[in-house]
């Protein structure tokens, strides 16, 4: 069974970026904040689960590949 997690950039500051994420692209109700210098993130609801980990890892992966923070994306596993 495939699992999909979507994410979308909501706002960007000099040291952090806020993303919404979730398993449905129409209802991404959760948020994570990525620290741009350390490339570490934390979910705003403090729930560290599969969806959060997948979104965070994919955001970092895209940044590593393109050298810019993604506007949006998805991960399928």
Describe the structure.
The protein has 77 residues and is of the alpha+beta class. 22% of the residues lie in helices and 40% in strands. The protein is built from 1 helix and 5 strands, in the order E-E-E-E-H-E. Strands 4-3-2-1-5 form a 5-stranded antiparallel beta sheet, with helices on one face. It is globular and about 35 Å long. 23% of the residues are buried. The model has no long low-confidence stretch (mean pLDDT 96).
Report the uncertain regions: none
**What structural category do the secondary elements indicate?**
alpha+beta
Strand content: 35-45%
Estimated helix fraction: 10-25%
Give the termini distance in whole angstroms. Answer: 9 Å
Helix count equals: 1
Mean pLDDT, as a whole number? 96
State the strand order across the main sheet.
Answer: 4-3-2-1-5
Number of strands: 5
What series of H and E elements makes up the topology? EEEEHE
Biggest sheet character: 5 strands, antiparallel
> What shape does the CA trace take?
globular
Rg from Cα: 11 Å
